[in-house]
Amino acid sequence: MNTGSNEFSSVTNALAIDGWCVVPDLLSSAQTQALAAECRAMHEAQQLTPARVGAARTATPLRGDSTHWFQTGTRSAPQQVFTDRLDALRIALNRELMLGLVECESHYAVYPPGAGYTRHIDRLRDSDARVVSAVFYLNEGWQEADGGALRLYLDGGSHRDIYPHAGNLLLFLSAQFEHEVLPATRDRMSIACWMRQRMSGPVF
Ligand SMILES: O=C(O)CCC(=O)C(=O)O
Ligand SMILES: [Fe+2]
């Protein structure tokens, strides 16, 4: 990926045409490895929290991951590098597609073997803030036999299985695509992010 002002032009084109794409080179492999090492260390130190679903934030069998939200002021160096790159992408999307994205929210997620996330849409029922979903994968040496695909449901009833290979960033329009995380045979690590617009009020 070059560093000119149009470095994200293929991404913005793909998002405009298909509504989703995979970006293979957001970070260097050293930067990706630093995030993976930190995520694994936090998981091993039991610093991740079982994920919740919905406004009631209830524990749920619908998803089996544990998470840690990146927070302003307490981001580690690898988290800050990632946040800055995602922000550059957000600004490019605003410039090219006029999406009006004002911020990103991001968390580490670890799915232990056998855990998944049932078919869902990322836009919350009472909020239209989430516009673009982004998932950055942290798993070196992932094989398709390990499972763990993100299954993205497309118009017309077909789907695509995207495997969580280290360094790949999956982007899709939050309101448009149902998706699910299929269970894997090994720990599956990622950073899940949402680029948000200003809320326009309740959506029913
Ligand atoms: O990890 C993934 O591939 C997707 C996670 C997801 O769908 C979510 O957190 O909403
Ligand atoms: Fe999702």
Automatic annotation (TrEMBL):
Gene3D superfamilies: q2cbj1_9rhob like domain. It comes from Rhodanobacter glycinis. The lineage of its organism: Bacteria, Pseudomonadati, Pseudomonadota, Gammaproteobacteria, Lysobacterales. It holds the Pfam family 2OG-FeII_Oxy_3. Its cofactor is L-ascorbate. Residues 100-197 form the Fe2OG dioxygenase domain. GO terms for molecular function: ferrous iron binding; L-ascorbic acid binding; peptidyl-proline dioxygenase activity. Keywords: Dioxygenase, Iron, Metal-binding, Oxidoreductase, Vitamin C. This is 2OG-Fe(II) oxygenase. GO terms for biological process: cellular response to hypoxia. PANTHER family: EGL NINE HOMOLOG-RELATED, HIF PROLYL HYDROXYLASE, ISOFORM C. PROSITE patterns: FE2OG_OXY.
